[in-house]
Amino acid sequence: MRTDTGRVFRLEDYRPSDYLIPRTDLSFVLSPDSTIVTARLLIRRREGVAPGTPLNLDGDGLTLRLVEVDGKLLEETEFSAPPESFVLHRPPAKDEFVLTIVTEISPSTNTALMGLYRSNGVYCTQCEAEGFRRITYFLDRPDILSVYTVRIEASRAEAPLLLSNGNPGATGELPDGRHFAVWHDPFPKPSYLFALVAGDLGAIHDEFVTMSGRAVALAIYVEHGKERLATYAMDALKRSMKWDEEVFGREYDLDVFNIVAVSDFNMGAMENKGLNIFNDKYVLADENTATDADFANIEAIIAHEYFHNWTGNRITCRDWFQLCLKEGLTVYRDHEFSADERSRPVKRIAEVRTLRAHQFPEDQGPLAHPVRPRRYREINNFYTATVYEKGSEVVRMIRTILGREAFRRGMDLYFDRHDGEAATIEDFLKCFEEASGRDLSQFTLWYHQAGTPNISATSAYDAAAKEFTLEIEQSLPPTPSESRKRLMHIPLQFGLVGPDGQDLSYAAVEGTAVEDGVIHVRKRRHSIRFSGVEERPIVSLNRGFSAPITLSLEQKTEHRVFLARHDSDPFSRWQSFNTILTEATIAGSKRILGGGEAEFEPVIAEVAGAIVENENLERAFRALALTPPGEADIAREIGSNIDPDAIFAARDALVRRIAEANRDQFLAAYHRLEDNGLFSPEAASAGRRALRNVLLDYLATTQDGPDIASAHFGSATNMTDRAAALAVLVHRHCERAEAQDALHAFEVTHGDDPLVMDKWFAIQAAAPGPNTVDAVQRLAAHPRFSIANPNRLRSLFGTFFSGNQSGFHRADGAGYRLFAETVLEVEKRNPQVAARLATGLRSWRSLEPKRQELAREALVSIASTKGLSADLSDIIDRTLA
Ligand code: 0A1
Ligand code: ZN
What we know:
There is one protein chain. The protein is an alpha+beta fold. Among the domains are: about 1-200, Immunoglobulin-like (Sandwich), CATH 2.60.40.1730; about 315-450, Neutral Protease, domain 2, CATH 1.10.390.10; about 455-545, Sandwich (Immunoglobulin-like), CATH 2.60.40.1840; about 770-880. Helices cover about 40% and strands about 20% of the residues. It contains 27 helices and 33 strands. The strands form 8 sheets. An 8-stranded mixed sheet has the order 6-5-9-3-2-12-15-14, with no helix packed on it. It has a 5-stranded mixed sheet with strand order 17-18-19-21-20, with helices on one face. It starts with 8 loop residues before the first strand and ends with a helix. About 50% of the residues are buried. The mean pLDDT is about 95. The structure holds O-methyl-L-tyrosine and zinc ion (ZN). O-methyl-L-tyrosine binds near residues 126, 129, 267, 304 and 327.
């Protein structure tokens, strides 16, 4: 493990390397404790670099066994190999030479899960971002593209399956029960896309014929006995391949495409060329083990990794500052895929909820950074919601500004021009400027400035003149190390909604660029006058969430109610009701803090009732509309001096109020939506379950709540319903025997399935209230829990620290003490996962003063621990700064 050196990497320091590595031949002789890696690297001096310039390679924790140049063994004086690098002092003066390096590594003791490690007895690799240097010395940076040939040798009994990138080559038997396989990847790639898997796994196989008629052999490898659980992932893969051909004109390029599911994985999945490696959570699914959300995630992540083949692999990043070039764009592509495969409005609402839950707090706290950061200490900490989700929103805005056709021309130009290269954000933007003739220079600020812009708006209607005016003002709050911000180009989709719910037309508009239903905000203030507006409209702003901003729009509740009922844009319709619920909860929490009780206007419950009954709306949409904003959403809106207990109480009161007012109607709807016993993971069926389960959550607060939830649990024929009922019981009735019985029954049925048990841990870790700290501590000692496995850690501790407002932020600081202890314990094995857990306190400064002080103490206790990893100290230092 690298400990913190405090080194900062800066974008402006980028310079090309002195040497290139056009060919890389690797040989692995696998054994758990001592794997021998022989790297034969064709090294080419870059033009203009002085002959004899020292060659510096990256390394991390390697044991060097041997070095040769052009087949000649080197003396120890000719090179040095301190822990983090290899230096060849005087390389041959000729243009090219072959450097052979033999290193020894120990996969079985690699607990950081970076480089070559073992998961359940399977050898696997994770090289992004800087894991390849834990396998061999190399120019481990994304702008070094090399053609790889890989030979893997292992015991056949231990590893009958030997996989690497590219296409399969020779295989053969060796003495002593060993065998080998050779793989060749003709596409030059950066080292972070290297992968190797060796082990004893089961598989499902299929085939995809590409648009030019080439047959590609597809395989998904999983633990023996779990093959059947990979069928949904395979189906998603084939749909992704087809979609990328149809929508982006991108065809797959190798003879094989392999996916391997492993149970120990730091992130979701990895796009290694031709050999994607997945966290098994995002491959394995059937109705008894996976929820509808799991199916949707599997579809999205399978697509995401596959789409990287073009956006990431064929065109990669020049340096890690450009991470959003591949991630923001690929998230945009997977969002579009899911929108096409499922319901576009429902998908959009889900995306915005995710963005607000994960990216907004990042942007509004001490870890804020631009979509393209300018500096980092540990790149692993920049796989963030800002780079991924906001990065995707920025691409979506480009599409909104350019329109569909020009956007597609820009993408085509990008693929044509940069195929086989390591590119930058500037390269990317230039393609859209050229393809559309538009000037995107002001828009570029979305990549460079951190923080969430705010738009405030007021409106007025002059009935006599038939004029409607909109006053719009943009502002961007300061973020760490960026106190002054420049004005952004914000594309706001809008409509002027008339009394019948239809958009009103207008004769002319004055004051700014309004184009095809989009206001292009570029200045601090805009005064926009629409003339010829026949009736008083209600303005619907930021339709479809066209820009990732916060909106301060003075609007009466009755106008919001009108939009919630009638806006033709489904996103805005959802937003209007969500804003009503948010504002009501905030007002309720203020009253509670003042010693009173939360009160709610009756119209809120009325609208909720009307939504349930509105058969013109998709069920999944209705489910989302009825889902009250989470406690963290409310806290974010309040912004400072947060008391999570008051928010919890207000939200709970709102749910009870809505349920009480609509009890009979909700119960009737709940019964109407009953399961017919036949399961399909498709969006329409999932929507029915989602609506029924939201109703269950409301009904659980009413008189027969525990009985209804318990019956729901007992009769569930799929995991979505079972997990929903368990959550309702544990979160709303944890003191009742029904809750404990359900927990027990769930454990008896699913105790041997770690991924399902993750739900059991997570549901308990998310239980609101002061007792959950102790419960989480108890669960950490449960035989099914393991501190070594990232999925277990995330389900128990990740859920508690980042997903349980009232439980984690217990007033006496017990949650924070558990936080410090756990983060330090995890860090000893896996710094990357520890650093992620540690982001659970990133919003500590918005807490009320007492909690703030207790949180600060916990953070300081971590910061003052000696020998912290670069990953963890980077997060803690920035959080405290
Ligand atoms: N590129 C992957 C995500 C990923 C990033 C880092 C990892 O290890 C440190 C692993 C995976 C993706 O976007 O899917
Ligand atoms: Zn990605």
